[in-house]
Design brief:
310 residues; alpha+beta; Jelly Rolls; Arc Repressor Mutant, subunit A; 3-stranded antiparallel β-sheet; 45% helix; flat
Length: 310
């Protein structure tokens, strides 16, 4: 389960209502942009290295038209259209029409594992492709926006339901083969490195609950340890050890809020070698102890359920 802390969602609006040129090029005075609303976060990653992790970015136009710069050209998106990208290839928002607005959704690459996206789609994104999709062909735009509003809600039950539905929406959008357009050209020289990094992530995802030394991961794909570590860091923006730790701690978070298992069992079931190490990592990621985190979550859930029945 992805908690709301794994999504950063911002609304961007045209602050002054100035209109862009019809060719999509910005005038000398570029439209000022206002980011409205709070990022949806219940937990914050505190490590600088972790915050440098690569992330998926979805820019979806919710009203009128927005213009973006990709490595190919300037493109215009209408309401209901979106650009999906990640790594170092995020398109640049250039301008917006009078009352235009868009949502910018970000989530870490590693947390996308839980979304079960189409593997080919995910790998092509890692190569550097930017995809142009349309919500209108996959789901109704209003339903998409309603899920966003529900995620912003205070009620824990509605928020959790909305998150699960939102995950399904993103998974459906990733089944892109019959309704997508590529709007950027990936760097071909990096394809092999990206593929090798992707294989390492896949292996970690399957074996994170086990004792998992770096040598075991790198030997599985037939690479020298030091070479593989450098390659992974360059492609993914975090080290192999940080990747393993992130997957483990978020698995533990899911167990904390969805099971009644004791904390010691959760720690070892998530691949941590000691309880002290688990407490250290969990506090670093969620700024709380596992016990308090679970307690606070359940208090919110209880209040939300109580409100729904009154």
């Amino acid at each position: 389960m992805l908690s709301s802390g794994h999504f950063d969602i911002k609304e961007i609006k045209n602050l002054h209502g100035t209109s862009s040129r019809s060719d999509g090029q910005s005038d000398h005075c570029i439209t000022r942009l206002s980011k409205l609303g709070e990022s949806i976060t219940e937990s914050t990653l505190t490590s600088t290295d972790i915050q440098q992790e690569r992330y998926h970015q979805i820019d979806i136009v919710t009203k009128e038209r927005c213009y973006f710069q990709t490595d190919r050209s300037v493109i215009a998106l209408e309401a209901g259209e979106l650009l999906w990208s990640h790594k170092d290839y995020h398109p640049t928002l250039l301008n917006m029409t009078n009352a235009a607005s868009l949502l910018q959704i970000r989530f870490p690459i590693l947390q996308a594992i839980d979304l079960q996206l189409c593997k080919n789609f995910e790998l092509e994104l890692l190569y550097g492709k930017v995809f142009r999709l349309t919500v209108k062909r996959a789901i109704d735009l209003q339903q998409f926006l309603q899920r966003i509003e529900d995620i912003r809600a205070e009620e824990s039950v509605m928020k959790d339901i909305a998150l699960e539905e939102f995950k399904l929406i993103l998974r459906r959008l990733s089944q892109y083969k019959n309704h997508t357009e590529t709007v950027s050209t990936p760097v071909i020289a990096k394809r092999k490195a990206c593929y090798q990094a992707y294989r390492m992530v896949a292996y970690i995802t399957e074996h994170f609950q086990d004792d998992l030394p770096i040598e075991k991961i790198t030997s599985n794909i037939g690479l020298n340890k030091n070479f593989a570590m450098g390659l992974f860091k360059k492609v993914m923006g975090l080290s192999l050890l940080e990747c393993i730790t992130s997957i483990r701690v978020h698995h533990a978070e899911r167990l904390l809020i969805t099971t009644d298992d004791d904390i010691t069992s959760i720690a070892f079931a998530s691949g941590f070698s000691s309880l002290s190490r688990f407490y250290e990592v969990f506090g670093k990621y969620f700024r709380d102890s596992p016990k308090r985190y679970r307690s606070n979550y359940r208090k919110k859930l209880k209040v939300s359920t109580s409100n729904d029945t009154t």
